[in-house]
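Input record (one chain):
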Amino acid sequence: MKRAVSKFLIYLTTAFLIVLNISASVSADELMVFSGAAFKKPLDELIQGYDKARVSANYGGVKTMITQLELGRQGDIFVVPSPDIMEQAVQKGLVKRDSVKSFIYAVPVIVVRKGNPKNIQGIEDLLRPDVRFAMANPEVVYIGQLAAEIFDRSLSPGKVRALRERVLTYAEDISKLQGYLLMDQVDAVLGFDFLKGWNPDKVDIVKLKPNEVIRIGNGQIGVTTFSKDPRGAEKFIRFILSDSGREIFKKYGYLTSIEAAYTFLGAARPIGGVPVVSKKWISR
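The corresponding structure, as predicted from the sequence alone:
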């Protein structure tokens, strides 16, 4: 186990190198989108349909994205899965507050391989010795934070400790988390509902009990304060939020209204908010 300071320094160094690479590859007239990996599938298609020569995207864990924006002061559009994360970006002077728009909603679920071969029915089943389980890194990934909060609230301290010991790996973003499942390296992950829409023929979802879901994710998008083409960025955002753009999100299984999210879950829950995560999840 590495010390927290060492992990942080490595993380900053990696982020800085990524920023240098992005800075070298982006032309002056190109829009650059910095986005949480949760939006990769629909955004890639939207960019293709808009102008792939005009827009490019960089995906990853949202905290990694914030660090990249801070270090590089590059990019035009920021996309995150929760209002509190966007508020951090606004407070840091990275995103224009009056440009921020809300679009999709995301409900935490257990994601399993197609047909649910291990017959996983709920959180307690993740403790079974025959179930291989992974989650997103709660230090940098929003769904990792939500997962840690859900486990802390839903399980006894002893079971939380046992579950932490059973986590096979902590993914750097939600796309990589899904990848472990698709490659049959794990039997279950705690992700968002739209992951079934990403690979409907390969995965299924197991809904959590409504009282186990502490909060619902909410996609937010805004223009950076250092965008070289803010009007172009706003135009692309309008395209994303248009009826045709929302249809692309629906195509990949995203919930495009809060009513749809409440119906899916079977209850109303808070939208966004800062997850309360035990330090034991952070200083692994």
